[in-house]
Amino acid sequence: MATDIRGKSYLKSEDLITEKENYNALCVGIGGTGVIRASMILGWSALHEGFKVRTAETHGMSQRGGSVSSYLRFGKTLESPFMVEGDLDVLIAFEISECLRNLHFANKNTYIIASKNSVIPPSVLTHRSLKIDGNKCVGCGNCIAHCIPNEIFLQSRHKNFYTLMKSPTRVVVNGYNRVLESCTGCVQCIIDKVCPFGAIEAFNEWEYVDVSLIEEDIKSVSENVIIIDANKIAIEAGNILTANVVLLGVLAGVNIIPLSEKILKETVKRFVPKKALDVNIKAFNIGFKIGKEYKKK
Amino acid sequence: MSIPFYALDKPGEKGVVLGNEGIARGVFEAGIIVASGYPGTPSSEIMEALVEIHKYHPNFEIEWSTNEAVGFQVALGASMCNARSFACMKHVGLNVAADAFMTATYAGAHGGFIVLSADDPNCYSSQNEQDNRYYGLHALCPIFEAINIQEAKDIIKYAFDFSEEFQTIVMMRTETRLNHARGDLILGEIEKIEGRTYDFDKDRDRWTFLPSNARIQRLKQIERINKLREFSDKFPYTKLDVKDGAKIGIISSGIPYSYANDALLKLNLTEKVSTLKLGMVFPQPEKLMATLFENSEKIIIIEQLEPFLEDFAKKLAFELDVNIEIVGKKYFQRNAELTLNKVIDGITKFLEIPNPFVDLPVNTEGLHFASPRPPVLCPGCSHRNTYYALKLMEQKLGKNFVYSSDIGCYTLGFYKPLEAVDTCICMGASIGMANGIAKLHNGPVLAIIGDSTFFHTGIPGLIDAVYNQNNVLVIIMDNNATAMTGFQPHPGTGIKITGEPGTKIPLESIVRGAGIPEDHLWIVDANDLEQTTKAIEEAVNTKGPRVIISRHPCALLERSIHRDKKIIPAQINTEKCNNCMICIKNFGCPAITLVNGKVSIVERSCNGCGVCVKICPFGAIEQIE
């Protein structure tokens, strides 16, 4: 039997992490916002630097509005389009909650460059409803009396034909808790404090946590985190669509993967429409400056 | 636009391409004459890249076929004329083409004939993750796989020569990770095939599968596969690498091989493990495998999905009476797709060595949960509007509809808030299943099908409904494109793959031709709630087979075609809005969202379809010019 392999480890984990023949980057964001394009720019830049290039893209069924990840690898010996989880050199996020979703790919040395941009998935809102504490609720019906959607339901039968409400809002006992059927999750009853017993709570099946909490999470993972308001910078540069180029500029500024500013900029020029060239270069340069300043600290 | 890199006539030039573009380049370099296919993720961009190439090198024929069966048959016919031909489809597309495929492999190819099957492990955009290598085994058709884009380009180019040399159809099997990967590619020479005439090869015994001919062709097929089995050991893209003193052997192919390669790198084992990489995964190279068996004590087979190679290797070991340990699926899961982490995990468990990557370098447990972001119907999507009208009428009429649905963007209607999809099995099944449900179910039975899907395989279901007088309401959601896969044209658009005009086949002419009488057919603008709800009410109260064509161009397509058309975005009148969230909760347009707790419309996203204006109970949504 292969006794030289069995029961004996050749592996020292510090050897593995410092292997630097290959580099890994991950671009994440929302479909249709330039994630794939950014990764293409990085890929072509890596090719011009003389590396082998591999990328893999994951997105759901529709390209619009769903999460998009583009895994980019370049180097001398690699073959696989995926990297090992936690073995990332750079994580570039075009939306902040997408950054949170992919933190398991990062380690404490990973450079995380993220845009503050936050887009609440529509599904978060359609999954929002209320929960009623069965111990506190006495069934006074005050909430129903103040429920706007319920009022609409009662009126809409003879008012707006095109308003869809399946049934009046009503409290349904569901085990220990009670839920409001046909609740739209508008939480007006909570805002107006209509329940005298404080029994109503918002129930978010899928919650989009506060941006500041996400930022804390990101900073807890890595020592190298740059979070900027890329959309704002892009608007200042002249076009909100250049937000991804701002982030690429930051990447060039911090200079942690062997893709030079010159080549990155040249590749950006090739990938943007001619009439938007100046705006993009401006956006890139602003990003570059931010990256450079960060590196100085 | 400038000429894309993969269409350049510059051998030796280096660039980064999408896997599908690389494959298209290979097909082009081989001197393709006829290419056909039907769009399907992850294969669609192959044909799109080919048509891009066609713009600059229009010396071959290319078409989107009505479905994969027709696509396969078109390519087969071209092969009978000695032309290099290519049929392109996703894995489940081969199910549609299987009837022709299973018999065509008896006769084999005359002109080089490659059928590409793009598998989708983990069902990223498919209804299943079937392993199409079994089709090769089933039809005795050789299968090629590639580990990266360069090899994919080279191997598919070579496949045409191979196909002609052995007179065999070749199946090129790819998977999402190759199709939708990007990588470096060096362009090769574009072959010029000269001196060939493309006349039909009138070998009637070969092409006519009457039983008497079929029996003879069957023998030829077996003879052919036996020859291929021998050749498999010499296949140029199959590589056995026996390492000195190595006791462990790995057998793999395609993308899983690339994971194996990097796993060995990461584990520092490259010099301690022998590898057998297969370029032709069926028939397998028996002699090379036997050599690997002789030089190893343990073999691990790394493959995606089913134990296809593993079963063969075990059978071969049994036949050779070799007593070594051969494992595969014992260490790798059969469902979903492999990743580098999973391959490292399998190898380390097999070797009983610690896995240094088992723990993440960061602790993610305490982090907040990122809310899921599933794909949604786009702002202004006409499908949402039709679904909304259906849901509205379901409530108004006090009836529960059965929604037998199909494959397309509209399958996304399954999710909240619409929840208007009850079934979805395969292309065209909506009407077929509705026919069966309607025989038993008490209540309105609806079949929801898209325009391209209706042309693909929906028509026989509708004819069945008319012929057998089944009580179904077919709703054809016509958005004038094969939208899900990237807005490819189809017979109803009257535009060919090249952008040139073809003959437009209006949906209603087919519906009428199938025997739907005029008073059982409604044609409405999907974005007109008034028209649509009225038609639904009438149709639900009518008996027998009936059809509503709910028509409005795909919002994204409309926006890209009519760029100068002014969009008047809807906006919230904050004085009237009560924040009741009915527009969000019950309509679910992604352009309507909450900003600082208040309902508002993202102007940049809004497509100006105007449906939300109608649904607001307070009249708080306005469209002001």
Features:
heterodimer; A: 297 residues; alpha/beta; Pyruvate-ferredoxin Oxidoreductase, domain 3; Alpha-Beta Plaits; 2 domains; six-stranded mixed β-sheet; four-stranded antiparallel β-sheet; 20% strand; B: 625 residues; Rossmann fold; five-stranded mixed β-sheet; 17% strand; globular
Instruction: Determine the CATH superfamily of the largest domain in chain A.
Output: Pyruvate-ferredoxin oxidoreductase, PFOR, domain III
In CATH terms, what is the architecture of the largest domain in chain A?
A: 3-Layer(aba) Sandwich
Helix/strand structural class of chain B: alpha/beta
Helical proportion of chain A, percent range: 25-40%
State the strand order across the main sheet of chain A: 2-3-1-4-5-10
| Fold-level CATH name of the largest domain in chain B | Rossmann fold
- Profile the largest sheet of chain B: 7 strands, mixed
Globally, the shape of chain A reads elongated
Please give a structural write-up:
- The complex is a heterodimer of chains A (297) and B (625).
- Chain A has 297 residues and is α/β, with parallel strands linked by helices.
- In chain A, 37% of the residues lie in helices and 20% in strands.
- Chain A has 2 domains: 22-121 and 209-296, Pyruvate-ferredoxin Oxidoreductase, domain 3 (3-Layer(aba) Sandwich); 125-204, Alpha-Beta Plaits, CATH 3.30.70.
- Chain A contains 12 helices and 10 strands.
- A 6-stranded mixed beta sheet of chain A has the order 2-3-1-4-5-10, sandwiched between helices. Chain A has a 4-stranded antiparallel beta sheet with strand order 7-8-6-9.
- In chain A, β7 and β8 (177-181) form a beta hairpin.
- Mean pLDDT of chain A is 85; it is low at 1-19.
- Chain B is built from 21 helices and 23 strands.
- Chain B folds into 4 domains: 5-233, 3-Layer(aba) Sandwich (Rossmann fold), CATH 3.40.50.970; 238-351, Rossmann fold; 382-561, Thiamin diphosphate (ThDP)-binding fold, Pyr/PP domains (Rossmann fold, 3-Layer(aba) Sandwich); 570-623, 2-Layer Sandwich (Alpha-Beta Plaits), CATH 3.30.70.
- The mean pLDDT of chain B is 95.
- Chain B is an alpha/beta fold and 625 residues long.
- In chain B, the strands form 6 sheets. In chain B, strands 3-2-4-5-7-6-12 form a 7-stranded mixed beta sheet. Chain B has a 5-stranded mixed beta sheet with strand order 9-11-10-13-14, sandwiched between helices.
- The relative contact order of chain B is 0.08.
- Classes of the chains: A alpha/beta (297), B alpha/beta (625).
- At the A-B interface, α1, α2, β2, α3 and α4 of A face β1, β8, α10, α13 and α14 of B.
